[in-house]
Amino acid sequence: MSAALDSPSNQTFWPLRESDLDEVMEIEIRAYPFPWTRGVFNDCLRAHYPGWVLREKGKIVGYAVITLAMGEAHILNICIAPEFQSRGYGRTLLRLLVQQVHDRGGERIFLEVRLSNGHAQVLYHSEGFNEIGRRPRYYPAHHGREDAVVMAMELLGEAS
Predict the structure, then answer these.
(1) Rounded to the nearest 5°, which phi and psi values hold at 145?
(2) Separation between Cα atoms, residue 148 and residue 131, nearest integer Å
(3) Assigned CATH topology for domain 11-154
(4) Is 124 one of the annotated active-site residues of the chain?
(5) In this structure, what is the dihedral angle of CA atoms 6, 11, 150, 122, given to the nearest 10 degrees?
């Protein structure tokens, strides 16, 4: 089932399927210096972690994978294809994720973001996430490891 979006463009939001992984992997490899493997995505699908793709005119422009248990969601991966970044797709996908978590009874959402990824941190802050901590040496980096900023959003009392 697709979700209707408030957009004049031809965007749809669909559950992530194994048949999407070729396109997702192509984006993942271009978007990240240390991408997830296809095996990680397959493991997430086998574990029934909720995942979605954002398509425009039939082409995947972004995707996300979360966990959701006992009222808490954790965004494991959220990505917009490099050529579609800085055009509002990340905000659209993030808002759709928040709505999905809310609709499934989630009360809070957590995520980690690279300390060096200031653009993503600005987006998350502008959508209601707050920094709640740091994870030292969390991410692989070209010269060692990089800290993660841990962020959270409370959904209690949020309107549908």
Answers:
(1) -130, 160
(2) 10
(3) Aminopeptidase (3.40.630)
(4) yes
(5) -60
Whole-angstrom distance, CA of residue 141 vs CA of residue 41: 21
Taking only the tens place, the pLDDT of each residue in 90-137 is 999 999 999 999 999 999 999 999 999 999 999 999 999 999 999 999
Out of 63, 89, 124, 139, pick the active-site residue: 124
Q: Where are the domains of the chain?
A: 11-154
Would residue 63 show up in a list of annotated catalytic residues for this protein?
A: no
End-to-end CA distance of the chain: 19
Closest CA relative to residue 158, chosen from 116, 95, 114: 95
Q: How many helices (H) and strands (E) does the chain have?
A: 4, 7
pTM of the shown model? 0.90
Tell me which of 28, 56, 63, 112 is the catalytic residue. 112
